[in-house]
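Notebook entry, structure prediction.
Reason for the run: the old model in the group folder had no record of what sequence produced it. Starting over properly, with the input documented here first.
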Amino acid sequence: MTAEKLIQNNNAAQDSAAGRRVLETEIAGLKALSEALDGEFSQAVEAIDQMKNAGGNGRLIIAGIGKSGHVARKLAATFASTGTPSYFVHPGEASHGDLGMVTENDIVLMLSNSGENAELSDLIHYTRRFGITLIAMTSNAGSTLAGHADIVLLLPKAPEACPNGLAPTTSTTMMMALGDAIAVTLLERMGLTEEQFKVFHPGGKLGQRLQKVADIMHKFEDLPLVAQNAKMSEAIIMLSEKNLGAVLIIDDSKGLCGIITDGDLKRHMSGDLMEKPVTDIMSTGPRSISQDALAVEAMNIMTKTPGRYITSLIVTDQNGKLAGMIRLQDCLQAGIA
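New structure, fully documented this time:
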């Protein structure tokens, strides 16, 4: 092995060792945090939950400086996306007018490892003046922040992963995790379902996958329908006009009798096809799905049915009656994959 290769291997080993050391240090911090959870955590959850249910349009205001500020921004987004109205306020900007964004109905969650950042003072004073609940997240129980807070979420004294013990690493990881723990605990109290979660993520991938069949289906009034006593000439005209790749055959009460697809036309192509009754060509018992089902379920049926290639499904209402049709193309266009 060449000297250059030996150096590369040695560097790789040292890098991996450093990476593992950082991860193990932060994991140890998280374990200590988990073991240290006490009644203050439950008090914080209860206070935020009561604020949400008080009917006073209260919000969770999250503030922090430096690396703690970056964590605070992320946590504000997490709380908002899980059903707790929340936003980030920069303590420095708060001193220059943004304090007006904080109301007496709100709760302030302030993040500071040391609890002694001078920039926090105006916001701390504001909460004390107007009786706004202040929750502190800090590792310094004797700090100014902890001393003025109504509830103190004390981070355990854990070494930073930085070899000099200076760069916020373990401390910010613990802050992030503790904030997530509060947000998810509140979510569990709400009993928020995946479908309700979509309300807060309408444009994201999760929101797309949680669209219901009813959201993207072709509704009854837009369907290509022909009567069961019609000739194939009428069905082909309807197939061309609606351009949905299928025609639905219905009886006098608008109940579904069968379906004729583009594939059926190819399989039954003959000189007298136009004169044949639609009942000779249609397939009975087509696959169906409820309009209340998730569109991803429709996608799975169409793409994962063994031995069958399905491009459309009949959609039924709560009473099992014809309500619409959903196609594979509709699911793909909606970003469901």
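Summary: The chain has two domains: 3-192, 209-333.
The old model has been moved to the deprecated folder.
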